[in-house]
Specification:
Blueprint lengths: L7 H15 L3 H9 L4 H5 L3 H12 L1 H8 L2 H11 L2
Length: about 80
């Protein structure tokens, strides 16, 4: 799965799911992510999860590895309607 394989509907679907989980408006979450800010995402996490998240964001190889897992691929298929 490459970075160009996500379509707009999939991204919006994922934003909606995550925003509901975090209790943050999808528009606010999208704006923060586009600006490289993760305040809303990190605010609801415990300290260890927040540290792991920040480490992953700083290292694209970690994100690439996570996105290649069967769970990530299944989530993508569910969101994209495949």
């Amino acid at each position: 799965m490459d970075k160009n394989s996500f379509d707009l509907n999939s991204i919006n679907g994922l934003l909606n799911v995550v925003s509901k989980k975090l209790g943050v408006a999808p528009e606010k979450l999208k704006k923060e992510l586009e600006e490289g800010k993760f305040d809303s995402a990190i605010a609801g996490m415990n300290k260890n999860d927040a540290a792991m998240f920040q480490q992953a964001v700083k290292n694209p190889k970690i994100i690439e590895k996570m996105m290649s897992t069967p769970q990530a691929k299944a989530l993508y298929k569910k969101l994209s309607g495949e």
